[in-house]
Amino acid sequence: MEFIPTTIPDVIIIKPKVFTDDRGFFMESYQKRAFSEAGIPFEFVQDNHSSSQMGTLRGLHYQLTHTQGKLVRVVIGEIYDVAVDLRKSSPYYGKWVGAYLSAENKHQLWIPPGFGHGFFATTSQTDVIYKATDYYDRHGERCIFWNDPDLAIDWPIPNGFTPLISEKDASAPKFKEAEVFS
């Protein structure tokens, strides 16, 4: 596996080695030793699977309690995946990084605890699987408005297109009003 830091070095793109032949392909999507050696020594306790139609935008989600790191990959379709640093103590606080993840490129994104996470589905059917380092806690769940001008996330949304968003995400607080990490 190749571990590539992004412009926020704690957020890492993982490119697996893919072995293909006439039958299809094989790859390791996770290997504890390789991840630990790359500075990702976390234990994963939960796997989640999300399916979205084209134009769906999910996020920006995080948990203040039972804070989750996430290892995100796409098994059908493509997403534009975004991580926002919500750690006030970080030099990258309020900055974001985005990456295209797809079933075709097989890239994964490591988003450590302390980050908000969201994605935009760019294909007709998109299935996202992600591992989490802690359990879901609805009492600690928080959200920041996906299109907050202070974050200025450059979502790949076509001009004039309105993304499909949940009521919760549509009514999320702005970044300046959100509870974040110290």
Structure explained in plain terms:
This protein is mainly β and 182 residues long. It has one domain (43-177): Jelly Rolls. It contains two helices and 13 strands; from the N terminus they run ββββαβββββββββα. The protein has helices at 32-37, 167-170, and strands at residues 2-5, 12-15, 18-21, 24-27, 46-53, 57-63, 70-76, 78-85, 96-102, 108-111, 115-121, 125-132, 141-143. The longest helix has 6 residues, at 32-37. The chain is globular and about 50 Å long. The relative contact order is 0.24. The model has no long low-confidence stretch (mean pLDDT 97).
Features:
5-stranded antiparallel sheet; mainly beta; globular; 6-stranded antiparallel sheet; single chain; Jelly Rolls; 2 helices; 182 residues
